[in-house]
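Suppose a classmate hands you a notebook page containing two proteins, each written out with its sequence and a corresponding row of structure tokens. How would you begin to make sense of it? This section walks through that situation. The first entry is reproduced here exactly as it would appear on such a page.
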Amino acid sequence: MPLSEYEQRVLDQLEAQLASEDPALGSRMASPASPRRGRVALGASAVAVGLAILVLGMVISQLWVSLIGFLAMFGGAYFALTSPKTNPLAEAPAAPKKRSSGKSRLSERFDKRLDDQGGGL
């Protein structure tokens, strides 16, 4: 069902606002996250070949051949249903980490809270 003109205009405004506020998130949301057609076709063909190998292994009574067919089927299905992961941290430069003076952040916050309250235990 297509969107009405008003809904399309509001959607365009939201997309523009998202892209202006957080360009990295906007570009990631604009790209499709679903698996590509070629990836699905390759995975489906691997499932079909794996099924043929599994049946062949059952016909010739060789368990190891059937196991290879099952693994090929499983790998093909996994390949078809997942999309390649991109590392968002690889695109952005890593921020330098601050070194603490040997205390953990939790203990630093605890000490600060005690100081703010005006005393010790």
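The notebook's second entry, a different protein, reads as follows.
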Amino acid sequence: MELHQGIILGILQGLTEFLPVSSSGHLVLGQIFFGITQSQLTFDISVHMGTLLAVLVVYSSDISAMLSSLFGFFSKAISFKPVSHLINEDKNLQLAGLIVIGSIPTAFIGLVLKQFEHVLFTSEVLVGAMLILTGTILWVSRNYYFSGNKNTEFGIKKATFIGISQGVAVIPGISRSGTTIAVGMFLGLDRHMAAKFSFLLSIPAIVGAQILSIKDTMEGGIAIDPVTIYATIASFITGLIALKLLLKLVHSGRFHLFAPYCWLVGSLVLLSKIF
């Protein structure tokens, strides 16, 4: 892979990981465009870690608060002190628990779909069709920006459904951020909470996916070259920008504006295969 190709793919990963247009779908199309057919596991892991770092930076205060609550919970639990009141009253502890619950269906679906990755990640037709589906989901979500009620309960059932949607988003062309935020709003969550939960839920998903890939990477040999380093930096910087931009769009009720883009790209991909 040439340096300019790596940087472009890193930028593509950073932008599309958070903007609701499917990073996996765009990376598949980008690698096909550059004629890259060999496995790039080390490269893929690195650019994904770049975007993970962007999430950690933006949500550092929330992550710190959850870790603090978890530490306090386990400290009291192992000391046989009462902890039931923490479960009922500590919002940060509850959020951490919902992230764990939402991650379970994501992991299960991801492991199942991984068995078909040789098909999922090589089909341009699938990417095109799923981009059109993503656009439709985004467009429908415009009716749910203001449906959230501050008193709406956010519990195990909703976290599970959002986790399922994140698992399905392993399919290239389906946007992880777009689908999980939209499903959150469909379930009645305030758009601010839907966005926060979506990106916090992405942390264990990204880490888990990369851990699964490390075994294959070790077998094939690790090669951290300058191309990978520059691409990872590019994915972090552009990911940070894209994440902050998307949050502004979600909070202002303009999340659905990415729908026409998904429809256009998806249609062009399908037409290119027909003609």
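A careful reader of the second entry would note: The radius of gyration is 19 Å.
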